Automatic annotation (TrEMBL):
<dbReference type="GO" id="GO:0016410">
    <property type="term" value="F:N-acyltransferase activity"/>
</dbReference>
<dbReference type="Pfam" id="PF00795">
    <property type="entry name" value="CN_hydrolase"/>
</dbReference>
<dbReference type="Pfam" id="PF20154">
    <property type="entry name" value="LNT_N"/>
</dbReference>
<protein>
    <recommendedName>
        <fullName>Apolipoprotein N-acyltransferase</fullName>
        <ecNumber>2.3.1.269</ecNumber>
    </recommendedName>
</protein>
<dbReference type="InterPro" id="IPR045378">
    <property type="entry name" value="LNT_N"/>
</dbReference>
<feature type="transmembrane region" description="Helical">
    <location>
        <begin position="83"/>
        <end position="107"/>
    </location>
</feature>
<dbReference type="InterPro" id="IPR004563">
    <property type="entry name" value="Apolipo_AcylTrfase"/>
</dbReference>
<keyword id="KW-0449">Lipoprotein</keyword>
<feature type="domain" description="CN hydrolase">
    <location>
        <begin position="215"/>
        <end position="467"/>
    </location>
</feature>
<dbReference type="InterPro" id="IPR003010">
    <property type="entry name" value="C-N_Hydrolase"/>
</dbReference>
<comment type="function">
    <text>Catalyzes the phospholipid dependent N-acylation of the N-terminal cysteine of apolipoprotein, the last step in lipoprotein maturation.</text>
</comment>
<feature type="transmembrane region" description="Helical">
    <location>
        <begin position="51"/>
        <end position="71"/>
    </location>
</feature>
<comment type="similarity">
    <text>Belongs to the CN hydrolase family. Apolipoprotein N-acyltransferase subfamily.</text>
</comment>
<keyword id="KW-0808">Transferase</keyword>
<feature type="transmembrane region" description="Helical">
    <location>
        <begin position="119"/>
        <end position="137"/>
    </location>
</feature>
<keyword id="KW-1003">Cell membrane</keyword>
<feature type="transmembrane region" description="Helical">
    <location>
        <begin position="12"/>
        <end position="39"/>
    </location>
</feature>
Length: 507
């Protein structure tokens, strides 16, 4: 490979690696368009093969560093040997990077090198790539470009077309900037200014309004070490800690809702009595907690068949009757084993701990009358924007409960909080995020964090939350920008084929 070829691969890899700094916890958001300018510039004149290799290099830089926390989950807490954990991370990053490589190859294959058409197809292609990444192999919608702009003026596009539209706008500004440097198209400068002006204006659209109530909500962050929660000798202490903190919070002032994190109760729902709920929070306060739901226990079945990672909402602690939500989108290799006939031997050989949950089906908002209507998600379910949107119903607030201790002191908890902010912005609903080890947070309907806890500490947060009524364009129409991008990309490819055919005919 020529030196220029290696330089192109190196520049692409560095661009991808630096892009990680645009996401949480770093937040250098301006790096996002700058890195995309650098990457797109490497694709403009490339052959399909070179474009594919540069796309792969960019993806390895982005995901090799951006999701390095997978190693923490697999090896530090999952017990996987160092060598195998490292290979797993590299393999995972390689799979994600290969999607960018395929995208780059398709763009280069369907458009002439050095053409304006190729340049302007890149935002559409990137948008389709991010959408594909959200469902291929159960989906991994992490590090979508739009998340880098969660706290910027570009987030005003989120209620219009979701995170993919924000990603599209970042890419569009990037290609316009690339056109200025690569082709001296200075007429692009007014277009960039117009886009910035439109983006700024979009932030002033009020999509929803308060429903007239204000809920006093408390989050209990107990920071229970992951290796202690499920031990039988510490189970009672863990449970009582949540109950003690909740009663103390409620004693200070009347609370409408107390939220405990995912699997806060290391116990099956079927083992909880009405007396448990009655003595956890005062009358008049609703309690939402994560736990394990195993319906077969009620039938005195001999096995723990069909367990669910679930949440229970008890509105009236006097009767102690919970509403139950069962997690729909499970974590592969963490909460269930896909293709068991292929991978079971690996788990048996390594003796890795893994839950074996079933996925829940359907969902309506959990509600306590008309005042409290919750659009709930567990763990990384809130990363799947379109799924969350479909099940929102008439919920006035969003709640996400998580167990981020599995990720240790890595990027993952901060990236997850950033995604929760984007869901609040897209749907124009306040978000309550309760995580065992933090960061827990209250997020308003514009995606702004109003209160946040530190990680790895016991903390209680109490805030007023204002349920919203009304809908955003994104809530009604979903990720329409993806369909639009796919159509434009297809038409551009057909145009390129027709043009090339005519050129060959005219020779």
């Amino acid at each position: 490979m020529k030196n220029s070829g290696w330089r192109g691969l190196g520049a692409s890899f560095v661009s991808g690696a630096l892009l990680v700094l645009a996401f949480a916890p770093f937040g250098f958001w301006l790096l996002a368009p700058l890195c995309m300018v650098a990457f797109f510039s490497q694709l403009i004149n490339s052959s399909p093969k070179v474009a594919m290799l540069r796309g792969l290099a960019f993806g390895l830089g982005l995901y090799g560093f951006g999701v390095s926390w997978v190693y923490v989950s697999l090896s530090t807490y999952g017990g996987m040997p160092f060598w195998m954990g490292s290979i797993a991370v590299l393999g995972f990053a390689g799979i994600l990077a290969s999607l960018i490589a395929i995208m780059a190859w398709l763009v280069a294959r369907s458009t002439p090198a050095g053409s304006t058409l190729r340049l302007f197809m890149l935002p559409f292609a990137w948008c389709v790539f991010e959408w594909l990444k959200s469902w291929v192999l159960t989906g991994f919608p992490w590090l979508d470009l739009g998340y880098t702009q969660t706290d910027t003026w570009l987030s005003g596009w989120a209620p219009i077309g979701g995170v993919y539209l924000v990603s599209f706008m970042v890419c569009l500004i990037s290609v316009l900037t690339s056109a200025i440097f690569k082709t001296r198209e200075y007429r692009m400068i007014p277009l960039i200014a117009a886009l910035i002006g439109l983006s700024w204006s979009a932030n002033y659209i009020n999509w929803t309004k308060d429903d007239g109530t204000a809920l006093r909500v408390a989050i209990v962050q107990a920071d229970v070490p992951i290796n202690q929660k499920w031990q039988s000798d510490s189970r009672a202490r863990v449970i009582e800690n949540y109950r003690t903190q909740s009663r103390a919070l409620a004693a200070g002032s009347q609370l409408d809702l107390v939220v405990w994190p995912e699997t806060a109760l290391p116990i099956h729902l079927q083992h909880l009595t009405p007396e448990f709920w009655q003595t956890s929070v005062p009358v008049g306060t609703a309690l939402l907690t994560g736990l394990i739901d195993t319906p077969s226990l009620l039938d005195h079945a001999p096995s723990y068949d069909r367990s669910y990672n679930a949440a229970a909402l008890v509105c009236n602690v006097e009767d102690g009757v919970p509403q139950v939500y069962r997690k729909r989108h499970l974590v592969p290799f963490g909460e269930y084993l896909p293709l068991r006939f292929l991978f079971q031997w690996v788990l048996d050989y390594l003796e890795l701990p893994m839950s074996d949950f079933y996925a829940g089906s359907g969902m309506q908002p959990l509600s306590c009358g008309s005042r409290i209507k919750i659009g709930l998600s567990i763990c990384y379910e809130d990363a799947f924007a379109d799924e969350y949107r479909r099940y929102l119903g008439d919920a006035g607030i969003l709640v996400n409960i998580g167990e981020d201790a599995w990720f240790g002191d890595s990027f993952a908890p901060h990236q997850r909080l950033q995604m929760a902010q984007m869901r609040a912005r897209e749907l124009s609903r306040p978000m309550v995020r309760s995580a065992n080890s933090g960061p827990s947070a209250f997020i308003d309907h514009r995606g702004v964090i109003t209160a946040q806890s530190l990680q790895f500490t016991q903390a209680n947060l109490v805030e007023r939350v204002y349920p919203q009524i009304g809908t955003t364009w994104y809530y009604r129409f979903g990720s329409w920008i993806v369909l639009f991008s796919g159509i434009i990309w297809l038409l551009a490819g057909l145009l390129s084929i027709v043009t090339a055919s005519r050129s060959n005919t005219g020779r």
